Amino acid sequence: MSVNDIKMPDNIMDNVEKKLRTHINAKKKRRNLYAASLALILALGLPASVLAYNNYVKNVPYIQEIDLARQNNTISKLDATFKYKDVEFKFKEAVADETGMVILYEVSDPKYSIKSMNLKDIEVHPPISWGYSYATNDETQKEKVFLTEVRGDTFIHMKDNPITIKIDKIINSSKDKEIAVDWSLKMQVPVQRSKIIPINKEYKLELGTMKLKTLNIGALKTYIDYEFISIDKNKISFSPTFAYRIDNMNTIISSNILDNNTGMDLTNTGEEFKSLYYSTPKEIGITLIGASVNYKFDDSEKYYIDKTKLPMEFDFKGEKGRVVSMNEKDGYVEYIFEFDKSNRNYSYINFIFGESSQSSTNFEDIKFINQDNIDKLYKELSKKIPGFEKKFSSSNFNKGAVNLKVTVPEKDSGSFTIFNADKEILLNLDEIIIRP
Questions:
Q1: What would the pLDDT profile of 266-324 be if each residue is shown by its tens digit?
Q2: 59-78 burial: b if 16+ Cβ within 10 Å, else e
Q3: d(CA 267, CA 280)
Q4: Residue 326: beta bridge partners?
Q5: How far apart are alpha carbons 417 and 353 in whole angstroms?
Q6: Which residue from 335, 329, 331 is spatially nearest to 353, judged by alpha carbons?
Q7: Is-contact 254 46, C-beta < 8 A?
Q8: Torsions phi, psi of 374, nearest 5?
Q9: pLDDT tens digits along 47-94
Q10: Please, what are the domains in the chain?
């Protein structure tokens, strides 16, 4: 059977819903999600559901899945109430699949919400997972959600056993004040099994081999299980960008993964699909259209700075830069770096000065060494993928760091190495078609 004509079993679709993409310059943006939420979604490699922008700024990002679970009697009812002073937290409902669990609660004073928690079975296990809550811009909304991670041993344990969620912090958003609590929410929630659709598609790319294994469709999240094998002994991290087509609808999704097990910074914009949890589309098209690439360098030479002879030029793998100036104050040294705007290999380079440093970066238009090919691919994808230009401006692919301010302790200011670098790439590959 061709991977371009894979057949799905009946009733295979659980949910492919809210799509997101990662902004190219996520490093420059202020994030509205807690870091733990990034770690969960991205560690699993999820290029689908849950984090569309127009949902997470609301308090119930899973509202479509929750409503469908209510309609189909697959939601678990909860009946637990906790109080902090005169503020009441009432836990109402929960939905879980093999990647996570969403718990709906209502708080009498909408300025309060849950900040952090652990998922554990105190008597049997040490903490087996963790959870996180959503930031909110709406202080009038009483209904909120928090989520817990479910995978590996957690999933195995949850299938047949009650669990205890230990809530340890709440927050008052009006005062940005965290408050310690000691609440234990005990429950047993059926875990909806994901449907696994084989893809088995392998791409031989310049940077390594990309293997798309399966499309995993769950009640809450849908994602591609994939593996990237770097040509350089796992020194390249590859975070793919896919274009998904559900019948005649189109969107672009981005899944950022760092070393396949940790979260990445992201800022989201997105487009909603009508949930497919209880219906089957005629076909699903999946196209690998690009990636965020992180290069890790273990072989960087050490660059020594003579503070009396600035500016100082350096060349790292063809990337030309300069230490332009310095300023010493209160035991710290502030360096200003500049980079050429043409013939670039990377959009961003990360410097290491000793044990600690702080930096800020200015991004501007640049020209990569292969800019002509980038422009050609952008035009091809704009014609091939409906809505591509609305999601990605052409300027997204010629932005790079041109000025960098680095502040380091005086004791570490004599030399630096280059630890890693980032770059966005575009790909124009054939669409994989999955038909029910």
A1: 223 233 445 566 667 788 888 899 988 999 888 788 999 999 999 999 999 888 999 99
A2: bbbbebbbebbeeeebbbeb
A3: 30
A4: 335
A5: 7
A6: 335
A7: no
A8: -60, -45
A9: 333 333 333 334 566 777 788 888 888 889 999 999 999 999 999 999
A10: 3-22+201-295+429-435 (no CATH), 75-189 (2.60.40.1630), 303-425 (no CATH)
Q: How many CB atoms neighbour CB 180 within 10 A?
A: 9
Classify 282 as helix, strand or coil.
coil
Give the predicted TM-score (pTM) of the model. 0.71
* DSSP letter assigned to residue 84: E
Residue 205 neighbours by CB under 8 Å, 6+ apart: 427
Cα–Cα distance measured from residue 152 to residue 107, given in angstroms and rounded to the nearest whole number? 32
Q: DSSP assignment, residue 161?
A: S
CA 36 vs. chain centroid, Å, equals 10
DSSP class of residue 9? Answer: P
| CA distances to 142, 180, 232, 414 from 350, in Å | 42, 37, 19, 17
In degrees to the nearest 10, what's the CA dihedral of 268, 273, 274, 278? -100
Tokens of 64: 């479509």
The residues near 36 (Cβ < 8 Å, ≥ 6 apart) are 116, 130, 131, 132, 263
Structural contact between residues 42 and 270, judged by C-beta atoms closer than 8 angstroms: no
